[in-house]
Design goal:
The protein has 9 helices and no strands. The chain is an all-alpha fold and 242 residues long. The two termini are 22 Å apart. The structure holds fe (ii) ion.
């Protein structure tokens, strides 16, 4: 269950043991992806064609991931909540509808800016993206607090792990690579070691090399050193094969 936060402290009393958290890791990824992209849009030089293309490509990719994230939450998490407490996901489900509208509007602004790169259009896009990011931060907080409380009251950890595995099965390889690129740098060293340690045990070596190659460029030397030690990988560049 690579994306679920199950970093329990076994020595603690059972009542205080952390529950399976379906939201925390993917939301860390989204927060980093959103803030990084927002900053890039804010400092964009609309006269630099390469920078414009790269920045808008990142923004398109963020918006597409936001769309699939909403779909996964609706299909798997809200369905689980509604199955045992009808109506309990209504507020957040309504916000998802608003988010999908906002995503479509932002995509239209991106297309317009790509076709006619002008400074005022870039500033307008920056403001609208900032508002979208702000709304999503509030939204994710509600999910991590009130939705988690609901899920924990309705489902055992074993059932939550099953839901999480169903979500993972619906993520295609390209989306998985994109999520890992943003999730791993957004995590604490202990979370990275747990996530990638699980993957190291489950994936063939070649696939694991691909994961390491995806995330290594986005970790600084200190973070990489800690992860490499946790995974028993060589620290030196180019030796990430075992
Ligand atoms: Fe959501």
């Amino acid at each position: 269950m690579p994306f679920a936060d199950s970093s329990a402290a076994p020595a603690k009393a059972a009542a205080a043991a952390p529950r399976i958290d379906l939201y925390s890791s993917i939301h860390k990824a989204l927060r980093l992806f959103m803030t990084d992209t927002l900053v890039r849009v804010g400092r964009l030089d609309t006269g630099d064609a390469d920078e414009l293309a790269a920045t808008l490509a990142q923004l398109r990719s963020l918006l597409e991931l936001c769309r699939t994230h909403v779909a996964h939450e609706n299909e798997f998490v809200h369905a689980a909540i509604e199955a045992r407490r009808p109506g309990a996901s209504q507020r957040i489900a309504a916000e998802h509808v608003e988010h999908l509208d906002a995503i479509a509007a932002l995509e239209a602004e991106v297309a317009a800016l790509a076709a006619l790169p002008r400074e005022p259009a870039a500033q307008r896009l920056y403001r609208h993206l900032a508002r979208f990011v702000g709304e999503n931060f509030e939204h994710m907080h509600v999910e991590e607090s009130s939705h988690n409380a609901t899920l924990w009251s309705l489902y055992s950890d074993a059932e939550l792990v099953e839901i999480h595995q169903r979500i993972l099965a619906a993520v295609d390889p390209a989306e998985m690579g994109l999520v890992l690129r943003w999730m791993v740098p957004a995590m604490s060293p202990a979370e990275r070691a747990e996530l990638l340690g699980d993957m190291q045990r489950q994936l063939p070596p070649e696939a694991m090399r691909g994961v390491i190659d995806t995330v290594r460029p986005h970790l600084n030397d200190s973070a990489w050193g800690k992860l490499a030690r946790a995974l028993n990988l060589p620290i030196a560049p180019g030796l990430t094969t075992r």
